[in-house]
Amino acid sequence: MIPCRSGEGKKGGSILATHLSAIKRARQNEKRRLRNLNIRSTVRSSVKKVRAAVEKKDIEGARKALLSTVSLIQKAHTKGIFHGNTSARKISRLTREVNALKTPGA
Fold first, then answer.
1. What is the CA radius of gyration of the chain?
2. Can you list the pairs that 86-95 forms with residues at least 24 positions away whose Cβ atoms lie under 8 Å?
3. Structural domains for the chain
4. Which DSSP letter does residue 105 get?
5. Which residues contact 55 (CB under 8 A, 6 or more apart)?
6. 50: closest CA among 104, 103, 106, 99?
7. 8 A C-beta contact, residue 98 and residue 50
8. What is the helix (H) or strand (E) element at residue 3, kind and residue range?
9. Are 62 and 50 in contact (CB under 8 A)?
10. How many CB atoms are closer than 10 A to CB 15?
11. Residues 74, 39: Cα–Cα separation, whole Å
């Protein structure tokens, strides 16, 4: 049996798999989970920046933040973190919020 390092994985757990291929698969899944978590968190932070700029009525700041956020959302979609419709919905809603700043009386 192959020893597993304790402390790896979620919340102090260790890999329960016993076969070599299953141990490797568990390691890969954990790497992907952490990568996805990081990318998802980055997207959320970026969306908050856009919404904060919209709240302050900062048109230029909101536009710049929107450009970088759209890029991050699309990158997350290509990596399989967001479904296509989810990324399209997020982009659409943010764009509408930013565009509402431009039009007078809105």
1. 20
2. 90/43, 90/47, 94/47, 94/50, 94/51, 94/66, 94/69, 94/70, 95/66, 95/70
3. 16-101 (1.20.58.110)
4. T
5. none
6. 99
7. yes
8. none
9. yes
10. 19
11. 11
Which tens digits make up the pLDDT trace of 44-100? 999 999 999 999 999 999 999 999 999 999 999 999 999 999 999 999 999 999 999
DSSP H/E element including 80: none
Alpha-carbon distance values, 37 to 19, 42, 69, 73, 102 (Å): 27, 9, 16, 14, 34
| Distance separating alpha carbons of residues 92 and 2, to the nearest angstrom | 49
Separation between Cα atoms, residue 106 and residue 8, nearest integer Å = 52
C-alpha span between 21 and 90 (Å, rounded): 37
For residue 1, the model assigns a pLDDT of: 46
For the residues of 11-69, what is the DSSP string, one character each? GG------SHHHHHHHHHHHHHHHHHHHHHHHHHHHHHHHHHHHHTT-HHHHHHHHHHH
Phi, psi of 102 (to 5 degrees): -70, -40
